[in-house]
Amino acid sequence: MSAEAKAKTLGIVFESAPAQKPYLNMCSRSGNLYFLSGHVSTLKGKLGADVTVEQGYGAAHEVAVKLLQSLRRVAGSLDAVRVVKLLGCVNGTPDFIEQHLVINGASDLLHEIFGKDGDGYHARSAVGFASLPTGVAVEIEAIFEAK
């Protein structure tokens, strides 16, 4: 099944009108690479305090959907790309050490859409921060490559 078809079966809806930000490019292409700006969760709070790992996982999943929507606006189709790298940022308490489990929410979705052993197999960093913009729980940026 193609990445586009898989995303559709998962209920991911792609908007037809571009959602541009006046001050930054949410997805910029350079050569064969697509660089996606940090996309944030709607969930706010701190992992290890008022946000559970499960809630954080869901927030990372949500952010991955937002990344795919921005990517598709520029690339035209998910079938035309492969995942290269994710940088997952987690708003956590100083003793929170499960950032990787939170960012699995994004990686698992990308594996499901693109294949864990194929175009979805990617490098990744999952790191903790003392705070993130507007108090969001998760921010993720990504790099994809045109096939």
SSE diagram, text form:
Layout: H1 3-9, E1 27-30, E2 33-40, H2 53-75, E3 81-91, H3 99-119, E4 123-129, E5 138-146
Helix pairs in contact: 1-3, 2-3
* Distance N to C terminus: 17 Å
- Give the C-level CATH assignment: Alpha Beta
SSE sequence, one letter per element: HEEHEHEE
Describe the strand arrangement of the main beta sheet, using strand numbers: 1-2-5-3-4
> What percent of residues adopt helix (DSSP H or I)?
25-40%
What can be said about this structure in brief?
By secondary structure, the protein is an alpha+beta fold. The protein has helices spanning 3-9, 53-75, 99-119, and strands spanning 27-30, 33-40, 81-91, 123-129, 138-146. The two termini are 17 Å apart.
Features:
single chain; 60s Ribosomal Protein L30, Chain: A; alpha+beta; five-stranded mixed β-sheet; 147 residues; 35% helix
Describe this structure as you would to a colleague.
This protein is 35% helix and 27% strand. It has 147 residues and is α+β, with helices and mostly antiparallel strands.
